[in-house]
């Protein structure tokens, strides 16, 4: 990890990570003990190791440059929709991607809401289009810079209690200087987003969610905190299958689609009943449902393919696409030498479904035998793009090799240096970076990095 900030210029490695200066005089063993006392109070304690990673920080200027490049990538996504709206698209591979998008739209069709009303074409390329961005991309800090392996551009993202909890715990344990605590706490960023959405007027935000005990435990403290920290905005959650209580109708209300279409499709009848009751009372969705397709990894392949991406991309958008996206293609469209390279070099590629969730249907070539990889590719290539009432589009992506960082981990053996990769995933809400979710990423991928993640407290320092 970099130890001395070089703040002269932003570069493609942003966000730059630095070790947090440790002012606490507490002995390492006591820090670990205090952490282990706090961890069980979270809702995710059983899903992470009980050792403590020392905090890191990034300069606000570095984070701002990172944000600007991600906004350019989002605008590139919107340019695809704009080209489809204005029928300025091309034939050939463009048309193949457009046909696949129809399948993605069918899969993303919500009960009651449907596909949503298309946005006016001009709004997709307007200067304030970034306000439509809501998501938390999965980003590996690679050897050549951050690489976006999934965008998660939709309101159905979850798990934000984890980076918020680890931020708050680290702030208590390590007592960083006050300026490190001014910004960057994830749930404070959520509160700011909803306050901006309200634009000074009292409003209600109606969250809809699957009926699940674990989700209830996770979201109860989230909504309590948001309601305490967002003046004039009340957050109300509705679980599918439960009756909707009497609601006030004297102020603006918004629907917040807080769950994925994957969860909705597993319980469509109850969600349909819930939405039928709520929709007459709300002004609309916090993010238009028509944009929910941007969550699909199909767009990563569409933009990664030079023969298919929109000709209207600006220089800034092209730079973002070419530097932030790993090589990504639709498996069924691969032919010739490109397909042979994927077959031969399995350690360099990942196969994933374009519209899977929670790391389902993700296959790392490096974890399979040569024959198993070849068989998997052939099997998926031969399957139809719509199967079993779901989108069945398969994406091949170049595996991102993480850049090596030297982090400090507090263990029973004391503080030890751990050389590891890092993923740094920003919460982009209303077109602004509101916080960072950072975790340890092994150099050789395995599913433990998804199901038993180890988080790194990540602060943002303003003024530098």
Task: Explain this structure.
The protein is an alpha+beta fold. The chain has three domains: 22-184 and 292-326 and 400-463, no CATH class; 186-286, Rossmann fold (3-Layer(aba) Sandwich); 327-398. It is built from 14 helices and 20 strands. Strands 2, 4, 17, 18 and 19 form a five-stranded antiparallel beta sheet that branches. Strand 12 (349-353) and strand 13 (362-364) form a beta hairpin. Helix 6 crosses helix 7. It is globular, with a radius of gyration of 22 Å.
Q: What is the end-to-end distance?
A: 18 Å
Mean pLDDT rating: 93
Number of helices: 14
Question: Major sheet: size, sense and barrel closure?
Answer: 5 strands, antiparallel
How many domains is the backbone divided into? 3
Give Rg in angstroms.
22 Å
Record field, number of beta strands: 20
Hey, roughly how much beta strand do the residues contain? 15-25%
Portion in helices: 25-40%
Structural class category: alpha+beta
Shape: globular
Parts with pLDDT < 50 across at least 5 consecutive residues: 3-10
Brief description of this entry?
The chain is 34% helix and 22% strand. With 464 residues, the chain is of the alpha+beta class.
Main features:
464 residues, alpha+beta, 3 domains, 4-stranded parallel β-sheet, 20 strands, disordered N terminus, Glutathionylspermidine synthase pre-ATP-grasp-like domain-containing protein
């Amino acid at each position: 990890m970099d130890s001395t900030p070089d703040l002269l210029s932003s570069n493609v490695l942003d966000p730059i990570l630095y070790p947090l200066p440790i002012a606490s005089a507490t002995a390492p063993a006591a820090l670990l003990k205090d952490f282990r006392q706090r961890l069980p109070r979270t809702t995710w304690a059983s899903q992470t190791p009980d050792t403590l990673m020392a905090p890191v920080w990034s300069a606000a200027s570095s984070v701002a440059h990172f944000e600007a490049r991600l906004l350019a990538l989002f605008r590139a996504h919107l340019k695809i929709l704009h080209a489809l709206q204005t029928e300025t698209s091309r034939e050939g591979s463009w048309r193949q991607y457009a046909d696949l998008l129809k399948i993605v739209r069918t899969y993303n069709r919500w009960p009651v809401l449907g596909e949503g009303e298309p946005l006016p074409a001009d709004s997709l390329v307007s200067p304030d289009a970034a306000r439509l961005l809501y998501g938390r991309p999965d980003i590996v800090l690679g050897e050549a810079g951050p690489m976006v392996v999934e965008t998660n551009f939709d309101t159905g993202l979850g798990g934000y209690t984890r980076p918020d909890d680890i931020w708050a715990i680290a702030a208590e344990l390590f007592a960083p200087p006050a300026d490190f605590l001014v910004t960057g706490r994830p749930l404070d960023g959520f509160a700011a987003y909803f306050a901006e959405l309200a634009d000074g007027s009292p409003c209600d935000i109606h969250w809809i969610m699957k009926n699940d005990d674990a989700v209830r435990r996770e979201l109860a403290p989230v909504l309590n905190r948001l309601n305490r920290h967002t003046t004039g905005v009340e957050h109300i959650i509705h679980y599918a299958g439960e009756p909707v209580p009497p609601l006030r109708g004297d102020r603006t209300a918004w629907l917040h689609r807080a769950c994925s279409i994957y969860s909705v499709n597993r319980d469509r009848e109850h969600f349909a009943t819930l939405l039928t009751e709520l929709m007459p009372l709300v002004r609309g969705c916090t993010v238009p449902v028509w944009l929910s397709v941007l969550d699909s990894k199909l767009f990563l392949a569409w933009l990664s393919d030079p023969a298919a991406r929109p000709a209207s991309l600006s220089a800034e958008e092209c730079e973002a696409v070419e530097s932030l996206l790993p090589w990504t293609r639709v498996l069924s469209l691969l032919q010739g030498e490109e397909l042979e390279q994927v077959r031969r070099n399995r350690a360099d590629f990942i196969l994933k479904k374009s519209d899977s969730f929670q790391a389902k249907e993700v296959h790392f070539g490096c974890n399979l035998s040569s024959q198993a990889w070849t068989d998997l590719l052939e099997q998926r290539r031969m399957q139809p793009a719509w199967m079993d009432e779901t989108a069945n589009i398969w994406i091949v992506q170049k595996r991102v090799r993480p850049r090596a960082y030297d982090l400090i981990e507090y263990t029973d053996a004391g503080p030890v240096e751990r050389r590891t990769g890092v993923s740094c995933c920003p919460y982009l809400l209303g077109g602004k970076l509101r916080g960072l979710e950072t975790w340890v990423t092994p150099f050789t991928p395995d599913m433990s990095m998804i199901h038993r993640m180890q988080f790194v407290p990540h602060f943002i320092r303003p003024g530098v």
